[in-house]
């Protein structure tokens, strides 16, 4: 019996390995087809959007180990294959040793579920982490702009203020520090206007784009920057307050379904239950 089980285990393992090697081959050839499609495509907006996403991912990978880990896991197909094979071996061994009673169909379903999870979960988790970090950038940016307004009022230029802030706000938000550090380096290379334009295009955040637009307008028209930055922080905080109020207002509508399911129905059962039971007993007699 043991020999039959082990032979079935080996055959099943070889079939699964062949399937995954074929899948790995297809995945490795997919980037080549993707490159040819991009080269043949005349629309450049998609290429620009991919460059923006890659630049944001570079910043977040630099400041977050979780983003870099899930990015590595998402891009490394061989590692996914090894993880699935290890889990499949564990499932087979547990079934062969009798520790866990699982049929062949159940084992196949479990391995298929692991395969689907390894394909779908890493990019989803990476996207969730990146969105949360972007929201944190939006929340912390008004404090950074207040610090920049103080630096400008003390006599610093915009370039010096950006360099100073990027070195001293790592404990507040490391992502904003990396963004400002990149912007300060680009200012030294290509000027402040092009650096702000690139920052505007790189970060998909309304607050960051408002900040870049305000600085560009102040530089273009020669107006004083410090009071404009103070007004900008007020507008950002009002926007954040409106967003919180909107969430609070929508909370009542979201609570309607749980209240109906868990409060109204039990109350109806408590109120109408005794009468219904009495009627059933009368009809039974």
Automatic annotation (TrEMBL):
Keywords: Cell membrane, Membrane, Transmembrane, Transmembrane helix. It is a multi-pass membrane protein. The chain crosses the membrane at residues 6-27, 78-100, 106-125, 256-277. One of its GO terms (cellular component) is plasma membrane. The keyword Transmembrane helix applies. The keyword Lipid biosynthesis does not apply. It is found in: Cell membrane. Its main location: membrane. It comes from the Bacteria. Residues 145-271 form the Type II secretion system protein GspF domain. InterPro entries: T2SS_GspF_dom (IPR018076). This is Type II secretion system protein GspF domain-containing protein.
């Amino acid at each position: 019996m043991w020999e039959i089980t082990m032979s079935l285990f080996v055959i099943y393992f070889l079939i699964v390995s062949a399937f995954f090697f074929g899948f790995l081959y297809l995945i490795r050839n997919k980037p080549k087809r993707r490159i040819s499609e991009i080269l043949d495509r005349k629309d450049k907006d998609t290429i620009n959007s991919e460059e923006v996403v890659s630049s944001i991912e570079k910043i977040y990978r630099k400041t977050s180990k979780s983003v870099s880990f899930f990015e590595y896991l998402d891009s490394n197909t061989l590692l996914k294959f090894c993880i699935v094979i290890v889990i499949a071996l564990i499932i087979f061994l547990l079934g062969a040793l009798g520790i866990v009673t699982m049929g062949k169909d159940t084992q196949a379903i479990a391995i298929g579920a692991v395969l689907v999870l390894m394909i779908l979960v890493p990019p989803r988790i990476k996207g969730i982490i990146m969105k949360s970090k972007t929201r944190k950038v939006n929340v912390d940016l008004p404090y950074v702009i207040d610090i920049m307004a103080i630096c400008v009022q003390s006599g610093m230029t915009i370039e010096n203020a950006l360099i100073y802030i990027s070195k001293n706000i790592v404990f507040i938000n490391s992502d904003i520090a990396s963004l400002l550090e990149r912007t300060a380096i680009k200012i030294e290379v290509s000027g402040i206007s092009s650096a702000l334009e690139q920052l505007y295009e790189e970060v998909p955040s309304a607050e960051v784009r408002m900040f870049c637009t305000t600085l560009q307008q102040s530089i273009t028209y020669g107006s004083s920057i410090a009071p404009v930055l103070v007004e900008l922080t007020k507008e950002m905080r009002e926007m954040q307050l409106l967003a919180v109020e909107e969430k609070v207002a929508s909370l009542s509508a979201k609570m309607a379904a749980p209240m109906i399911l868990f409060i109204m129905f039990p109350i109806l059962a408590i109120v109408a239950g005794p009468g219904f039971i009495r009627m059933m007993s009368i009809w039974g007699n």
